[in-house]
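S1.2 Input.
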Amino acid sequence: QVKVVESGGGLVQVGGSLRLSCKASGMQFDTFEMGWFRQAPGKEREGVSYISRTGTDAYYIDPVKGRFTISRDNAKETVSLQMDSLKPEDTALYYCAPRLENGGEWADLVPGDFGYWGQGTQVTVSS
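S1.3 Output.
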């Protein structure tokens, strides 16, 4: 049974940093691209960053480029999201998930292309 568990969220002031972690189990982790998503109150879930199976390639949405860094450790079956220079608009529930099928441009991916969602971890940035 595939399971992903996110952790590392919290309350931080503007300009602060957080490091989110996601532990996966029940799957051959190194065969899946992984993604981080977020969902703010009243908004749809959006993809934030994706990482290739080997960790050599990554994608970021424009609002987080230069501030967030995604990484993975296949031996530990974990994927992380380092978030720096946080802004109030980064406040959301953050999720990680494996991509269900390969192929296509990362910029065209939607949450429906991923599965096995966890409970998420809350990130709140106070001004």
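S1.4 Remarks. The mean pLDDT is 96.
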